[in-house]
Amino acid sequence: MKPVAAVSLALLSALSAAADGVAWEKSWGEAKTKAGLEGRLLYLDFYTDW
Description:
Layout (H helix, E strand, L loop, with lengths): L1 H19 L7 H11 L12
């Protein structure tokens, strides 16, 4: 049952982000400061095409 809950939570999170739009920060320092002030976590997305 736990995997189903985890997948459901991930889908709901994706839907809420898509509905509001995502405002990506371009500076690591500014993003870290803003997250700290707002009491939010940082989401890091790394991608490579080796």
